[in-house]
Design brief:
This protein has 230 residues and is of the alpha/beta class. 40% of the residues lie in helices and 20% in strands. It contains eight helices and eleven strands. The longest helix has 15 residues, at 105-119. It starts with a strand and ends with a strand. Residues 121-131 have low confidence and may be disordered.
Protein backbone atom coordinates (compact mmCIF):
# COMPACT_ATOMS: atom_id res chain seq x y z
CA UNK A 1 0.00 0.00 0.00
CA UNK A 2 0.98 3.62 -0.47
CA UNK A 3 0.38 5.19 2.94
CA UNK A 4 0.14 8.77 4.15
CA UNK A 5 1.40 8.99 7.74
CA UNK A 6 0.37 12.16 9.60
CA UNK A 7 2.21 12.38 12.94
CA UNK A 8 3.95 15.29 14.67
CA UNK A 9 6.07 13.12 16.98
CA UNK A 10 9.18 12.80 14.80
CA UNK A 11 10.68 9.85 16.68
CA UNK A 12 7.43 7.85 16.56
CA UNK A 13 6.92 8.81 12.92
CA UNK A 14 10.40 7.62 11.92
CA UNK A 15 9.88 4.32 13.73
CA UNK A 16 6.44 3.81 12.18
CA UNK A 17 7.78 4.69 8.75
CA UNK A 18 10.54 2.11 9.20
CA UNK A 19 8.00 -0.56 10.18
CA UNK A 20 5.87 0.24 7.15
CA UNK A 21 8.79 0.06 4.73
CA UNK A 22 9.97 -3.22 6.29
CA UNK A 23 6.46 -4.55 5.58
CA UNK A 24 6.95 -3.50 1.92
CA UNK A 25 4.62 -0.51 2.03
CA UNK A 26 5.59 2.90 0.66
CA UNK A 27 5.08 5.86 2.97
CA UNK A 28 4.89 9.66 2.91
CA UNK A 29 5.21 11.43 6.26
CA UNK A 30 3.62 14.78 7.10
CA UNK A 31 3.60 16.54 10.48
CA UNK A 32 0.58 18.82 10.16
CA UNK A 33 -3.03 18.44 9.08
CA UNK A 34 -2.81 21.16 6.44
CA UNK A 35 0.24 19.45 4.92
CA UNK A 36 -1.66 16.16 4.83
CA UNK A 37 -4.56 17.70 2.93
CA UNK A 38 -2.13 19.12 0.37
CA UNK A 39 -0.44 15.72 -0.01
CA UNK A 40 -3.79 14.04 -0.60
CA UNK A 41 -4.54 16.49 -3.39
CA UNK A 42 -1.23 15.87 -5.14
CA UNK A 43 -0.79 12.08 -5.14
CA UNK A 44 -2.92 8.96 -4.67
CA UNK A 45 -2.79 7.03 -1.40
CA UNK A 46 -4.39 3.78 -0.29
CA UNK A 47 -4.80 4.64 3.39
CA UNK A 48 -4.10 7.45 5.86
CA UNK A 49 -2.60 6.84 9.31
CA UNK A 50 -3.67 9.94 11.19
CA UNK A 51 -2.62 11.19 14.62
CA UNK A 52 -5.39 12.86 16.58
CA UNK A 53 -3.17 15.41 18.39
CA UNK A 54 -1.65 17.55 15.62
CA UNK A 55 -0.24 21.05 16.15
CA UNK A 56 -2.40 22.93 13.66
CA UNK A 57 -5.71 21.04 13.78
CA UNK A 58 -6.84 17.83 15.43
CA UNK A 59 -7.19 14.62 13.48
CA UNK A 60 -10.98 14.74 13.72
CA UNK A 61 -10.98 18.02 11.80
CA UNK A 62 -8.55 16.63 9.22
CA UNK A 63 -10.73 13.63 8.43
CA UNK A 64 -13.85 15.81 8.30
CA UNK A 65 -12.07 18.04 5.77
CA UNK A 66 -11.01 14.95 3.80
CA UNK A 67 -14.58 13.72 3.52
CA UNK A 68 -15.92 17.16 2.58
CA UNK A 69 -13.33 17.33 -0.21
CA UNK A 70 -14.34 13.93 -1.52
CA UNK A 71 -11.45 11.75 -0.30
CA UNK A 72 -12.95 8.34 0.49
CA UNK A 73 -9.81 6.32 1.30
CA UNK A 74 -9.67 4.56 4.69
CA UNK A 75 -8.36 6.41 7.75
CA UNK A 76 -6.67 4.72 10.72
CA UNK A 77 -6.47 7.00 13.77
CA UNK A 78 -3.48 7.02 16.12
CA UNK A 79 -4.62 8.30 19.48
CA UNK A 80 -3.44 8.54 23.06
CA UNK A 81 -7.03 9.22 24.07
CA UNK A 82 -8.14 5.83 25.31
CA UNK A 83 -11.77 6.57 26.03
CA UNK A 84 -15.03 5.69 24.29
CA UNK A 85 -16.08 9.28 23.56
CA UNK A 86 -12.97 10.11 21.53
CA UNK A 87 -13.00 6.78 19.70
CA UNK A 88 -16.63 7.20 18.70
CA UNK A 89 -16.03 10.84 17.73
CA UNK A 90 -13.30 9.68 15.36
CA UNK A 91 -15.56 7.08 13.77
CA UNK A 92 -18.39 9.59 13.38
CA UNK A 93 -16.02 12.10 11.79
CA UNK A 94 -15.31 9.60 9.02
CA UNK A 95 -12.49 7.46 10.40
CA UNK A 96 -12.45 3.71 9.85
CA UNK A 97 -10.37 2.32 12.71
CA UNK A 98 -8.01 3.39 15.49
CA UNK A 99 -4.91 2.27 17.37
CA UNK A 100 -4.22 3.55 20.88
CA UNK A 101 -0.69 4.75 21.70
CA UNK A 102 1.63 3.19 22.58
CA UNK A 103 0.94 0.49 20.01
CA UNK A 104 2.69 -2.67 18.91
CA UNK A 105 3.81 -3.00 15.32
CA UNK A 106 1.85 -6.26 15.05
CA UNK A 107 -1.42 -4.53 15.91
CA UNK A 108 -0.76 -1.64 13.54
CA UNK A 109 -0.02 -4.00 10.65
CA UNK A 110 -3.03 -6.20 11.42
CA UNK A 111 -5.37 -3.22 11.36
CA UNK A 112 -3.85 -1.93 8.11
CA UNK A 113 -4.31 -5.34 6.55
CA UNK A 114 -7.94 -5.38 7.68
CA UNK A 115 -8.53 -1.98 6.06
CA UNK A 116 -6.84 -3.21 2.90
CA UNK A 117 -9.09 -6.27 2.77
CA UNK A 118 -12.17 -4.10 3.08
CA UNK A 119 -11.01 -1.90 0.24
CA UNK A 120 -10.03 -4.66 -2.15
CA UNK A 121 -12.19 -5.01 -5.22
CA UNK A 122 -11.21 -8.61 -5.94
CA UNK A 123 -11.44 -11.72 -3.83
CA UNK A 124 -8.57 -13.71 -2.38
CA UNK A 125 -8.21 -15.84 -5.54
CA UNK A 126 -7.88 -12.83 -7.78
CA UNK A 127 -11.36 -13.29 -9.22
CA UNK A 128 -13.62 -10.48 -10.34
CA UNK A 129 -15.53 -8.24 -7.99
CA UNK A 130 -18.99 -9.30 -6.91
CA UNK A 131 -21.73 -8.69 -9.49
CA UNK A 132 -23.46 -5.35 -9.28
CA UNK A 133 -26.76 -5.21 -7.41
CA UNK A 134 -29.63 -2.77 -7.58
CA UNK A 135 -30.73 -0.53 -4.74
CA UNK A 136 -33.84 1.26 -5.87
CA UNK A 137 -32.73 3.09 -9.01
CA UNK A 138 -29.08 2.77 -8.05
CA UNK A 139 -26.62 0.21 -9.38
CA UNK A 140 -24.01 -0.72 -6.79
CA UNK A 141 -20.42 -0.55 -8.06
CA UNK A 142 -18.28 -2.66 -5.67
CA UNK A 143 -15.09 -1.90 -7.61
CA UNK A 144 -15.20 1.82 -6.79
CA UNK A 145 -17.56 1.70 -3.78
CA UNK A 146 -20.06 3.95 -5.47
CA UNK A 147 -23.67 4.03 -6.66
CA UNK A 148 -24.58 4.76 -10.28
CA UNK A 149 -27.80 5.80 -11.99
CA UNK A 150 -27.39 6.95 -15.59
CA UNK A 151 -24.78 9.72 -15.56
CA UNK A 152 -25.19 10.30 -11.83
CA UNK A 153 -22.75 8.75 -9.35
CA UNK A 154 -22.48 8.83 -5.58
CA UNK A 155 -19.20 7.90 -3.88
CA UNK A 156 -19.44 6.22 -0.49
CA UNK A 157 -16.90 6.40 2.30
CA UNK A 158 -15.41 3.02 3.29
CA UNK A 159 -17.49 2.82 6.45
CA UNK A 160 -20.67 3.80 4.58
CA UNK A 161 -20.01 1.08 2.03
CA UNK A 162 -19.39 -1.51 4.76
CA UNK A 163 -22.64 -0.55 6.49
CA UNK A 164 -24.52 -0.84 3.21
CA UNK A 165 -22.96 -4.25 2.54
CA UNK A 166 -24.05 -5.52 5.96
CA UNK A 167 -27.60 -4.24 5.40
CA UNK A 168 -27.69 -5.82 1.94
CA UNK A 169 -26.48 -9.15 3.31
CA UNK A 170 -29.45 -9.13 5.72
CA UNK A 171 -32.03 -7.60 3.36
CA UNK A 172 -35.46 -7.33 4.94
CA UNK A 173 -34.22 -8.26 8.43
CA UNK A 174 -34.19 -5.84 11.34
CA UNK A 175 -30.63 -5.32 12.56
CA UNK A 176 -30.02 -3.92 16.02
CA UNK A 177 -27.59 -1.09 16.67
CA UNK A 178 -25.47 -3.48 18.73
CA UNK A 179 -25.21 -5.86 15.76
CA UNK A 180 -24.25 -3.02 13.39
CA UNK A 181 -21.65 -1.69 15.84
CA UNK A 182 -20.04 -5.14 15.95
CA UNK A 183 -20.10 -5.79 12.20
CA UNK A 184 -19.28 -2.31 10.87
CA UNK A 185 -17.24 -0.65 13.63
CA UNK A 186 -15.90 -3.73 15.46
CA UNK A 187 -17.23 -2.30 18.72
CA UNK A 188 -18.35 -5.11 21.01
CA UNK A 189 -20.53 -2.96 23.26
CA UNK A 190 -22.99 -0.09 22.97
CA UNK A 191 -21.06 3.12 23.72
CA UNK A 192 -24.30 5.03 24.25
CA UNK A 193 -23.81 7.39 21.30
CA UNK A 194 -25.62 7.87 18.00
CA UNK A 195 -22.82 6.81 15.64
CA UNK A 196 -25.10 4.25 13.93
CA UNK A 197 -27.98 6.71 13.64
CA UNK A 198 -25.67 9.36 12.17
CA UNK A 199 -24.31 6.97 9.53
CA UNK A 200 -27.81 5.79 8.60
CA UNK A 201 -28.86 9.43 8.14
CA UNK A 202 -25.86 10.07 5.88
CA UNK A 203 -26.72 7.06 3.73
CA UNK A 204 -30.35 8.13 3.48
CA UNK A 205 -29.33 11.58 2.25
CA UNK A 206 -27.27 9.94 -0.48
CA UNK A 207 -29.54 7.16 -1.71
CA UNK A 208 -33.16 8.10 -0.97
CA UNK A 209 -35.43 9.80 -3.49
CA UNK A 210 -37.09 13.05 -2.34
CA UNK A 211 -40.71 12.45 -1.43
CA UNK A 212 -40.33 8.66 -1.51
CA UNK A 213 -40.18 6.20 1.41
CA UNK A 214 -36.66 5.59 2.66
CA UNK A 215 -34.87 2.42 1.59
CA UNK A 216 -33.45 2.28 5.12
CA UNK A 217 -36.37 1.67 7.43
CA UNK A 218 -36.30 2.52 11.14
CA UNK A 219 -37.91 -0.20 13.24
CA UNK A 220 -38.74 1.71 16.40
CA UNK A 221 -37.11 0.28 19.49
CA UNK A 222 -35.36 -2.46 17.51
CA UNK A 223 -33.00 -1.12 14.81
CA UNK A 224 -32.87 -0.74 11.05
CA UNK A 225 -33.84 -2.77 7.99
CA UNK A 226 -33.00 -2.37 4.32
CA UNK A 227 -36.06 -2.69 2.07
CA UNK A 228 -37.01 -2.35 -1.60
CA UNK A 229 -33.86 -3.90 -3.03
CA UNK A 230 -34.29 -5.52 -6.44
Amino acid sequence: MHILLVEDDSELARQTELWLREAHHSCVWRERGAEALIALATEPFDVVILDVGLPDMDGFTVVEQMRVRGFTLPVLFLTARDNVTDRVRGLKAGGDDYVTKPYAVEELMARLEALQRRAQSVNATGGPAAPARMLGRWTLDPLHRRLRSGNETIDLQPREWTLLEVLLAHEGRTLTKKFLLEKVWDIQFDPGTNVVDAMICRLRRKIDEPGQPSLLQTVRGKGYALQAVS
